[in-house]
Design goal:
Elements: H1 6-43, H2 48-84
Length: 105
């Protein structure tokens, strides 16, 4: 059994929620940027090779944000599994049961 202080769990939970919220805000900002770039390209007379490259780079970037969010989801599962194997397992952290899984890649 791991020994973890309640205050450490509370701080990590708060910081994890903040990172998830920031990631979602980044994703939203990216979506806004994608929409405005599409509007800009549509009002410009750019050749297809230029517009295609712009769109491809934007989509690649958005995919990396989603990949990072998936990594965060897995990290939350790992942290929850560690907490559940500690003396703080009864501490309610607000994590849904689907996070309560062993660390997996």
């Amino acid at each position: 059994m791991h020994h973890i202080t309640e205050s450490a769990v509370t701080v990590v939970v708060g910081d994890t929620r903040a990172v998830l919220q920031a990631t979602d805000q980044t994703l939203l900002a990216h979506a806004h940027m994608l929409a405005s770039v599409i509007e800009g390209v549509n009002t410009s007379n750019l050749p297809i090779n230029v517009s295609q490259d712009i769109y491809a780079r934007l989509i690649d970037h958005g995919g990396k944000i989603i990949e990072g969010r998936e990594d965060l989801r897995r990290l939350i599962g790992c942290l929850t599994a560690i907490k559940d194997e500690s003396d703080q397992r009864e501490l309610a952290t607000g994590c849904p049961t689907f996070f309560r899984a062993r660390c997996a890649s």
